[in-house]
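Hey team,

Filing this mostly as a record. A colleague (T.K.) asked me to run one chain through the structure pipeline before their review meeting, and I want the input and output archived in the tracker in case anyone asks later how it was produced. No errors, nothing strange. Just documentation.

Input sequence:
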Amino acid sequence: MTGFWAIYRRELWALWVTPVAWILLTTFLLLQGGVFYSIVLHFSGATELSFDNGPIESYFGQGSIFLLMTLLLMCPALSMRSFAEEQRSGTIEPLLTAPVRASAIVLGKYLATFTTYLLMWSPTLVYPVILRETGVVDPWVVASSYLGLSLLGAAYLAIGTLMSALTQSQLAALMLSVLLQFGIFVLGVGEFIFEPGPLHAICSHVSMLSHMEEFSKGIVDLRRVVFDLSLVVLALFVTTEVVDSWRWS
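Output structure:
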């Protein structure tokens, strides 16, 4: 795709040469380190460990609500500048007049933020290594847990990219992304409120809590994979249409 790699490298460089990514990374690792420490401290004093509720399962699953809340702030913060800053500063004009398709622009920017997201999570790979020194760690549970995080991050970053394209303010893009993602989160909480039925099924299907609870136990439900990827495709498609419309306005 013409221009894709150039835009990808440009956006990735822009993310890491500014303080934003480094501030996010430092804050993120401090928070996750504290969560991991508290979980390890808890299990170090436990007399019995169940097969499906060890430190890894607690860190990635419902036992660590702080991890889930982190995603609701981390993803909007990473994606808020994608298009909003370009529109505010006027640098989007040369990009739109270049012989580059709108889809290449959107994918380049989106994948740069997604790569940054994965890089921010990469230091936490040391946690399973630490736990492996003190007990048995199931590699499949670790792999599925990170797969779940990757899918959620991909969906939320796509939503954030769309919100960034709809406004010229990074703060507005951040707030819109947080509100929309929090709305999805609250809808998912409905699975613990409603009786079994169609509404309960919908809430359970979009539930962020159930999503990570299943993946943290090594359960990869293809319905959740399809749902997350559908959000990515839909959000990026709409973003591409928005960006393409700028050329004709």
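Quick notes for T.K.: The chain has a mean pLDDT of 84. The longest helix spans residues 139-165.
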